Known about the structure:
This protein is an alpha+beta fold. The protein has 1 helix and 8 strands. It is globular.
Amino acid sequence: MILYHFxxxxxxxxxxxxxxxxxxxxxxxxxxxxxxxxxxxxxDRAPGIENQGRFRHEVEVDEKDPRLFKDESDExxxxxxxSMYPGKTDSVRGMATSYFYTKPIxxxxxxQINYA
Length: 116
């Protein structure tokens, strides 16, 4: 599966797990105070740091990799949204999914992002 990491810094070879300044208590409890690499399936934005990530890093991860976790806090929000609009079964389909990865991960490519 192709996922993306957005950052102010270009990392051409490898993304290393860290505990950065943008971390907060609303994150998935499994990631709080843990060094992780945050990933998303969105090519357009970095959830939580919109318009701040200047570089989009593309990585490839096996979706069954035991070091890859879906962000449960984001998934709960999707469930809440879906329950508010039960007749709209596609209301969360287009929403980005956030993940975190617990080990260094090789970068396939990096692209500089220019936000309008």
